[in-house]
Design a protein that fits this description.
The structure is a homodimer of 333-residue chains. By secondary structure, chain A is an alpha+beta fold. Chain A contains eleven helices and ten strands. In chain A, strand 1 and strand 2 form a beta hairpin.
């Protein structure tokens, strides 16, 4: 494991100083692979430790490497905990080959190729569903991608983000989650948060329902407009923010009383979450189309969901207050 | 309403005699529209009557016509009945415009166009989920499509099918459902059933799971290789077969005892049903992409579903016996 830490102080270094401090030689992307993988693994470790401490239950670890060694998954799963229904975290490191279809799916259309092209990805994902419907679900995903012939990256980029999906709206929770992410973004570029916040609202759009999946957060992709070392530091800090941005909300809400009716509402919202993931979520479409293990790709779906024909919420209700911000995203930080 | 009946005796007529008997003038497709719509409406009426008689609960009818008059839906919904969780039937009559994307989605890739093209469709759909997990879910969908500029159909075709989705395998039920559909097919063409049975197994394939959604039935699309009147008769008889093919199974299974564990298994299977519909089902993709009402397009999803990470079935169990036929489709008739 690398022990390099990525703290805000690296920001005071120039690109070449950064490269030297981080042991980088030659073109950035090749060494970036190892560093990205380390960031993803270290973040997964910290996150799972913090979640296990809060819950009291422990994670099952499932590591899998393909026979050819080109794909490895590290699945960390906490199921049926005291606080959480599921905490599902995965680190994937893949040396694969894009088809024109999977390249489009993985990049949201920005990588257009006519013939197969090798790619590399190191990614971290986290999806959390809690027992108490007053606790929002949370999702984070960070990844480094490169692609090119003969193991020489012709293109590299970072992507990722984190977002919050409440069943009931507590404005202070949404504001806290956004503020923490804004702080990380602002350290790197004041234009990042406004851009990535809007991108998140656009991305998590259940188009056929005219609703967002949740109250958003940040989302970015194809990010390669500055030194890869700087972007590694940015992604590392984003991933580290999951704990302070989300766990205080969990602690505050996990012992609240709730009714059967509120649990039913949560399951209806879970149905919308599933509609989004199976129809629009790029990771799911890419994961399944590129031959990923279905159990892994779909492991983050909410465990119970409902569909009711023409379900409506009562005007002025807590449910209606949530729907209002899902239909019309608000500024939170 | 037209009163023409479509019985096997029409088979003894030649194409021109058929056309004359059915009052057809000029090119088939224009008059075919009205006949197809009548078939769909009459079948919906008979089916809903038979289901309401069996259940004891009644259907809510919801008719909707777009302001321009180009789209009409007749939704018939029986919810929370005595026997059925949901019986959802829809007749849609649409004068729309294909984009290159929706044309591909609606025809499984066989209609490739570069610019927008008007289309007409009259379709009937039926989805049934029962209370008792020993009762299989059932689905049927029949449609007439045509497309071409200036309201002159350059192309027309029929599509449809019916299939059975059990949670527990009763071989005699699968055999009965297939036999009834084989009988209709055989009246028209001995090659139909084998072809449409295999097509059904191919279509209802949850590719990322390596499972079929159920034990199949028949499925066909782009069917235009003979006189449209003959195909109207075929589709009318297929739609009429839903009642004798499915309701005897419902009657036989709807009072069986079942355990909580078996209900849980049903909800896990419902999760797979939802994966199929949101990711692969052409009607859903087409319906949502062409701006169909989400509540209508998605009304047929099972009302409750579960996902469990790496759920496994015990060797030799009833659940394993079902999985075996979902993984390796069998001949039933």
């Amino acid at each position: 494991m690398m022990t390099t830490t990525y703290s805000p102080s690296t920001l005071s270094l120039s690109a070449s100083e950064l490269a030297s401090a981080l042991g980088q030689v030659g073109h950035a992307p090749v060494s970036t692979r190892a560093k990205a993988e380390t960031i993803m693994r270290e973040a997964q470790h910290s996150i799972c430790k913090a979640f296990a401490d809060l819950d009291g239950a422990s994670f099952a670890e499932d590591m899998w490497t393909s026979p050819d060694g080109n794909t490895s998954y590290t699945d960390m799963e906490l199921r049926n905990g005291n606080v959480f229904q599921t905490v599902s975290s995965n680190v994937a490191v893949i040396n694969g080959v894009f088809s024109p279809d999977t390249a489009r799916a993985a990049t949201g259309g920005s990588l257009q190729i006519d013939s197969p092209m090798p790619f590399y990805v190191a990614s971290l994902s986290l999806v959390v569903h809690a027992r108490n419907p007053m606790v929002p679900s949370a999702h984070a995903n960070y990844r480094y991608f490169d692609s090119g012939q003969d193991d020489v990256p012709e293109r590299w980029w970072f992507g990722g983000g984190a977002d919050l999906t409440p069943n009931y709206l507590f404005e202070e929770d949404a504001a806290h989650f956004h503020r923490l992410h804004r702080e990380v973004c602002d350290r790197f570029d004041l234009a990042y948060y406004p851009r990535f916040k809007n991108w998140c609202d656009e991305y998590f759009h259940i188009v056929h329902r005219g609703e967002r999946r949740g109250v958003g957060g940040i989302f970015f992709d194809n990010l390669s407009d500055r030194d890869p070392e700087l972007l590694l530091a940015f992604v590392a800090q984003c991933a580290a923010s999951v704990i302070p941005a989300y766990l205080p909300i969990v602690r505050k809400r996990c012992s609240m009383d709730f009714t059967e009716e509120q649990e039913r509402w949560r399951q209806l919202r879970a149905g919308r979450y599933i509609e989004f993931n199976l129809m629009y979520e790029r990771g799911t479409v890419f994961g399944l189309k590129s031959g990923g293990r279905a159990a892994s790709v779909l492991r983050a779906l909410p465990p119970r969901a409902r569909w009711e024909y023409q379900h409506t919420v009562q005007a002025g209700s807590d449910e209606a207050r949530l729907m209002e911000v899902l239909r019309h995203p608000r500024e939170w930080a």
